Amino acid sequence: MDRFVFLVGGGVARGTVLALFALSLVLIWRAARLVNFAAGAMAVVAAYVAVGVAQATGGWWWGALAGVVAGGLLGAAVERGLMRYATTPLGGVILAIGLVMVLQSALGIVAGPQHVPVAPPVSDQPWSVGGVPLGSPYDVLVVAVALGLMLGLRLLFTRTTLGLQLRASAFAPEVSRLLGVRVARMRTVAWALASAVAALAALLLLPTELGLDPHATDVLFVLAFTVAVVGGLDSPGGALVGGIGVGVLMSLVTGYLGAGVTPIAVLALLVVVLLVRPQGLVAGVEARRA
């Protein structure tokens, strides 16, 4: 039982980060009907900026802020300079995959292929209550930051004029143009916001799991894409549900059956969801509310 509690706690912490990264994919899908296959590579670029600033200033939070800003600027630049010219979904996918190769190759040339460990800003040693290991201070920080950001994004989309314009541009671009909304600008804002969120998600996992190298977020992107599909690509709420579910599943399978079985378990979950509810677990509810 003690082990189960520990594994579930770790799975929730990991799942919230997966949900955060999946949310960035959902934001771009809703804005442009495109899966951003370059999200992981773009997040790595932001992570290198964050680690560089953190080393220069001695402060992890300054580095995190710089990484989030860099992610947002890179997202806006990619949308305006590249993705805007994709005339078909397939063309957007090809451009994104090409961007992955360019960014990872450039990082390998500039920073080198070596793996760089990243220290967490607070302790990652688990607390023990009554002999039962619980989450660590860093796990609490990760969950708090991820859930706080998700709440902030929900308030942005439901309580602000900018959020209303972003939603209108995604669901009814032609009508939005007639009403004076600058749809192209809103799409750029969506890309910048999504890339900043993905950068923060990657930064939260760097100290405990990923470390830093040009391919650090490859697995993270695959897992986040799975989370987005499981929850529903049109559903921000589904990203949270799918993220926590996948995170807990991975933690339990790794703890009881071994890390080698974990990818099979995640793949099995994805196949079951696609067979039973291909639109995602929460997509139907979100569509009715919209």
UniProtKB/TrEMBL annotation:
GO molecular function, one term: transmembrane transporter activity
Keyword Transport: yes
GO biological process: amino acid transport
Membrane topology category: Multi-pass membrane protein
GO cellular component annotations of the record: plasma membrane
Signal peptide segment: none
Pfam families: BPD_transp_2 (PF02653)
Keywords of this entry: Amino-acid transport, Cell membrane, Membrane, Transmembrane, Transmembrane helix, Transport
Locations listed in the record: Cell membrane
Domain of life: Bacteria
Keyword presence, Transport: yes
Membrane-crossing segments per the record: 6-27, 34-54, 60-78, 90-111, 140-157, 188-207, 219-249, 256-276
Family: Belongs to the binding-protein-dependent transport system permease family. LivHM subfamily.
Name under which the protein is recorded: Branched-chain amino acid ABC transporter permease
Name of encoding gene: livH
